Amino acid sequence: MSDLITVAAVQMTSGKVLTDNLRAAEAGLERAAAGGARLALLPENFAGYGVNYRELAARYDDLLAWLGEQARRHQLYLAAGSLPARYRPDGSEVPAPRVRTRSVLLGPDGAVIAGYDKLHLFDVDVQDSQGRYRESEVFEPGDAVVTAPAAGLTLGMAICYDLRFPLLARALVARGAELLIYPSAFTATTGAAHWELLMRACAVQNGCYVLGANQCGQHSEKRASFGHSMLVDPWGRVVAQAGGEPSVVLGDVDRATLTQVRSALPVHQHQRFTVESFYDLR
Questions:
Q1: Of the candidates 214, 213, 217, 261, which has an alpha carbon nearest to the alpha carbon of residue 237?
Q2: Is residue 15 over pLDDT 90?
Q3: Do the beta carbons of residue 231 and residue 214 sit within 8 Å?
Q4: β-pairing, 247-254 with 4-11?
Q5: Which CATH class is domain 4-278?
């Protein structure tokens, strides 16, 4: 098994037209595959931004089939950003008008490997044109921590605002995660202030690689995303980073680096708390 595993983050400016968003996602996946990626990550809400998510969720099965086709065509492990989902993992329906925000991981055969529902919802006030963000009015939070195998790695699955919650990252790494993935839509304001800082801190504190695929650019008159999708190594070095435009970031996850950093800085052996003693999902 090679020590180097090429991964990709597809950076998009998603809008309200589904066909345009899928066309952009497909172009990004083609570039990722052409660059040798074994795993590609789409951003949060890649299929629609600022839309009626309950209505888009009615297309969930169609979108999942489309994603499976893309994974097969490009022979990729595909971490599909996030999709709005009307149904919980147990099959029960989320009461209208809310849905869940679900990240789905598919294999090169197009089959679903795992799904993760966003735990932490972005209910904040930001000094930008929109000002008020209340995801909980539209989305229901998930209730599970999810790791999954992909491209010879163990992935820890998270979404956007989850990046601000270090206990989730620590719980994922405690379950074996080597690469944490964050499909995101950081605002232009919060992204400029915190995106790189949070990504690098997450990698250093947890001794793992961190891959973030961000939305970018102007989605509407009041809503803009920061971009700057990136891959960070366990030493906190930015391996590859995008700018503020739609693009594809390619970088290598190096098993040798992962082993060396974890050996030199064995923080998981030194910590005095177990995850179970301070982490109880509520």
A1: 261
A2: yes
A3: no
A4: antiparallel
A5: alpha beta
